[in-house]
Amino acid sequence: MAGMRIKPEQVRTDVAHASEEDEIDLLELVRALWRGKWTIVLTTVLALMIGGYYAFGVAEPEYQSTAQLTLEARTNNVVDLESVISGVSTEQAALNTELEIILSRRLLGKVVDELDLVNDPEFNSALEPPSMLAEVKGMVIGQVATWLGSSVSETPGNAAVEKSPRDRAIDNLNKALSASVKRDTYVFSINATTDDPEKSARIVNTLADIYLDEQIAVKFEATEQAVTWLSARVSELEEDLRAKEETLKNARAETELISTEALEGLNLQAKDLRDRLQEMRDQTNAAKTSETQLLDLVETGDRAEAVNVTGDSALQRLLQSIEDGDADAAQLFDQRLATLLERAQTERERLQSQAAALAVSYQRLQDRIDRQSEDLVRIQQMEREVETTRTLYETFLTRLKETTVQRGLQQADSRVLSDAIAGEQVAPRTAMILALSMVLGAMAGIALVLVRQFLHSDFRTAEDLEATTGLPVMGQIPKMPVKRTGLINYLRNKPTSAAAEAIRNLRTSILLSNIDAPPKVIMSTSSVPGEGKTTQAIALTQNLAGLGKKVLLIEGDIRRRTFSQYFKTQPKGGVLSALSGDVSLHEAVFLDKALGAHVLMGEKSSVNAADLFSSDRFRNFLDGARETYDYIIIDTPPVLVVPDARVIGQYVDAIVFSVGWSSTHRGQVTAALREFASVNLQVDALVLAQIDPKGMRRYGYGGKYGAYASYGKGYYEAG
Predict the structure, then answer these.
(1) Assessment of whether the complete model's pTM goes beyond 0.70
(2) Domain 2-21+458-712: what homologous superfamily?
(3) 279-to-192, 220, 265, 271, 569 alpha-carbon distances in Å
C-alpha cells in the first residue's frame, strides 16, 4: 500500500531542492553552446556574407595622405621682442591649441576656396545624383508633411536653416581631416581621407601651406599693430614730457628757493633764533620774579629782608645807619629800594621788548621755511614725474625702433618636415571587416543560443528534470505519430517502434523499482492538462497486458472523460455504477480486444469527484480489484487543476508523473510536487513525455538520448 512507501522527509527535501534558485553551471553553458553550434555557425556565415557584401560591393575605397610639420622650439629673431610679440609655447596645451587652429573653419574655408571644393561632389553632396534611398526618404517626408498639413511645414519656427554650399563643404572637409601630435615631440601629423589619392595629398599640402602662411600673417599683423600702437604712445609721451618739463621750469622760476642746502641753512638759523628766543623768555621771567619780590618788600617794609633779597651794599650800609640811630638813613633806604624797584621794572620791560622782537623774527623765518618746504616738495614731485615720463618715453622709443627693424624678419613658428604624397588606401579594410563580421556573427549566435537557453523555462532533457525535482526519470516517451483514435492500433501494429520501446522501458523501470513488492496499482497523472498522461496510461496498460497479465484500466478523470476518444465501446456502467453497487465490477468493465485489457470508463456525477474518491467505497473497490487483476492503471486529472489525484494517490502503489517535453513550466512541476508533498505523497517515477525527435535534434540533443539518437535507428521500427 501507499502508506508503507511514503517518505515525507524525502519528499520535502526533493521539493525544496526543486525550488532552490538556479545556479550558473559553466559546463552546462558549454553544452548549450555545443548544442547550438549550428545556430552559431549559421549566424557567423550570415554575418560574414553581409560583411563581405559590404566590403566588396558597397563600401567605396578611401585613400589617406599624411604631411608632417614640426613646431620650432627656438626662435631666430635678431632682436629680442619677447615683451612685444610672444612666440608659440611648446607646452602640451599650446600644442593642442595649434591642432585646433589647423582644423579651424577659417583655415578650412581657405582650403575650400583654394581647391574649389564647393564644386567637388565628395564635399558638396548637392552635386551628387540623388540615390534611391534619398528619393524614398524625400517621398516619405513629403507624404508625412501632407498628412500633417502645410501649415506645420510653413511655420517659421519649424523651418530649418539651410547651410550654404561653402559651409557644407567646410563641414565635410573637417570630417575628412584629422591632426595629431607625435608623443614627446613637437611634430604634427595632418591626415586627409578622400576617395582620390591625389586629392588627399593636395588637400593636406594646401592646408599645411595655408597654416604656415597664416602664422606669418598673424605675426606680421601683430608687428604692424605693435608699431602703430608704439608710435602713438611715443608721440603722447613726448608731448607729455615736454609739458611737464616746462611746468617744472616755471615752478622753479616762481619760487624763491635757491637750493635744498639753502633751505637747510634757514632751518639752522631758525633753530638758533628759537634758542635765543627761549633764553630771552627765561630772562624776562627772572626779571619779572625779581620785580615781584621788590614790590612785596616795598609793601611789607621789611628792610632786613630787602637787604637779604637784593644783596645791595648801599642798602646794607643804610640799614646799619638806621640801626645806629641815623634819622635820615631810613628815608635814604626807602629811596634806594624804590630806585632798585624802578631798575627792575625797566629791565623787565627791556627784556620783554627784545623777546617780542625775537618772536616776530622767528615767526617770519618759520613762515619762510614752510613756504619754501612746500615749494621744494612740489618741485621734487614734478622732477619725479618728469623723470618717470622720460624713462617711459625712452623705453617705448627703444621698443618702437626694435619693432620697426623686426618688420622684415617674420617667419612661421612651424615648418614642413615631409610633404604629403599620393594617399594609400585605408578603407575598406577587407580583412578587418571580415574578421569583425565573423566575431560579431559568432557573438550574435552565442547570444541567441544563450538567450534561448536561459529563457526557456521548460524541460528538454531527463537530466534537467532530475536536477530540478530531485526525483528519478524512469521514462522518456516520444510524441505519438497518430491521433487518439489510432493510438491502440499503432501500439499493437508497431510493437518495435521507438514509442513502444519507450513504454516498455518505462514498464520495466516501474516493475523493477521495488523487486520485493512490485506495484500493482499505478496512478498516471501530471501537473496540467495536455502532458500525455492519458496516452501514457493506455500505452502502459497495453504493454502490461502483452505480458499475459490481467490488467484493469480505470478512467479516474471523471470530469473530462476522454476515454471515449480512445474506445468505441460504450458500456452500461462505469466508475460510479461500480462504486455505488448498482452493477458489479465484472458488469461495469469491458474487454477491449485491441488493448488486451479491461477498461472501466468514467461517468458523469453530481457528487464532487474528490469526495467520491475519498470515500471508503472507493478504498473497498480498489481492494476488491486488487484480488481480481494483476495490475490496475488509474488515469487521474492534473494535480494543479483539481485535488482528485492527491486523493486517489493515497490508495495506489506507485505514482507516475508525466511532464510534457518543452512545454510544461518548471514552476508548474515544482508546484505539483509540492501539492503531493503537502499530503505526504511521493512521486515514484517521472516521465518526460511527448518528446519531439526532430525538436531534440534542433535543440542539439539528438545524439545523446537512446531511442532518439542516430545509433538507435537500426533497433526501432519506423513510425
Answers:
(1) no
(2) P-loop containing nucleotide triphosphate hydrolases (3.40.50.300)
(3) 102, 79, 21, 12, 165
